Amino acid sequence: VDITSLSALRIRLNATRSPDSPKYSYLPFIIKAVSLAMHRYPILNARLDTTTTPDRPSLLTRANHNIGIGMDTPSGLLVPVIKSVNARSIASIAEEITRLSALGSTGKLSSADLSGGTITVSNIGSIGGEVVAPVIVEGPLAILGVGKIKSVPVFNDKGEI
């Protein structure tokens, strides 16, 4: 994926942000992109209902995009949830990541912060990781593993760079 334009936008936003607002990492943009994909493909925001009619499970789509983010905390790996991403701006997502991260680092995430996720984003790229083997836990439908951003050669149909 070519992120040249995104990288330039991120640099511009960080240069013009107010000192009291969070710095923009790539994660808020990735989370918003996942939400836009969920809007375009609602099945990504579905859950399997096996309780209403146990002999006939059904797929239920959800209105809100509640996206969990894998977070390394002193208590271990936790997945706090950014609620209603579909109704949030990039700035609001960045603020919520900052809030959840602060709570996670002090061990103060609430059960409300850790529940209701429909899909999870695990970003190991922020620590330089390139390969990820994410595990889906009960609740979220899927997990997106994001590795380190790096430049790679791109070849055309003739095998030329």
Q: What Rg, in angstroms, do the CA atoms define?
A: 18 Å
Helix fraction bin: 25-40%
Q: Count of helical segments?
A: 3
* C-alpha end-to-end distance: 16 Å
Mean pLDDT: 87
N-to-C order of helices and strands: HHEEEEEEHEE
Spatial order of the strands forming the largest sheet = 6-3-7-8
Largest sheet: 4 strands, mixed
Number of strands: 8
What class do helices, strands and sheet pairing give? alpha/beta
Uncertain residue ranges? none
What are its keywords?
161 residues, 3 helices, alpha/beta, four-stranded mixed β-sheet
In short:
By secondary structure, the protein is of the alpha/beta class. It is built from three helices and eight strands, in the order ααββββββαββ.
Characterization of this structure:
This protein has helices at 4-16, 27-40, 90-105, and strands spanning 46-49, 58-61, 67-69, 71-73, 76-78, 81-82, 119-123, 142-146. The strands form 3 sheets. It has a 4-stranded mixed sheet with strand order 6-3-7-8, with helices on one face. The chain has a two-stranded antiparallel ribbon with strand order 1-2. With 161 residues, it is α/β, with parallel strands linked by helices. Strand 1 (46-49) and strand 2 form a beta hairpin.
